[in-house]
Amino acid sequence: MRKVPVGVLAQFDAEGRLLPVSVTWENGRIYNIDRVLGMRVSRVNRDNHRYDVVIHTQQTCLYRAGDHWYMEAK
């Protein structure tokens, strides 16, 4: 697996949580996030987050490390 930097459109919900709305892949294609299933904060580095998301019926992970977002390519 390789880390692919992605662009992310995100918004804050009413409770102040940052939620991703769409992902722009390295080829410029935009994928809407249908649902955010959950978010986990790294125990080692509190700036690292993992979002479990659904994109076109496929469950996958989106990662945020500080101000940078990435996904894993197979």
List keywords for this structure.
74 residues, mainly beta, five-stranded antiparallel sheet, three-stranded antiparallel sheet, 8 strands, 0% helix, globular
Task: Tell me about this structure.
There is one protein chain. The protein is mainly beta. The chain contains no helices and 8 strands. It has one domain. It has strands at 2-5, 7-12, 18-24, 30-32, 35-41, 48-55, 58-65, 68-73. Strand 3 (18-24) and strand 4 form a beta hairpin. The N and C termini lie close together (5 Å).
- H/E series, N to C? EEEEEEEE
Number of helical elements: 0
| Gyration radius from CA atoms, angstroms | 12 Å
What's the number of structural domains?
Answer: 1
- Overall 3D shape: globular
Provide the residue-averaged pLDDT.
Answer: 93
Largest sheet: 5 strands, antiparallel
End-to-end span in angstroms?
A: 5 Å
- In total, how many beta strands? 8
Structure described in brief:
The chain is an all-beta fold and 74 residues long. The chain is built from no helices and eight strands.
SSE blueprint:
Elements: E1 2-5, E2 7-12, E3 18-24, E4 30-32, E5 35-41, E6 48-55, E7 58-65, E8 68-73
Antiparallel strand pairs: 1-8, 2-3, 3-4, 5-6, 6-7, 7-8
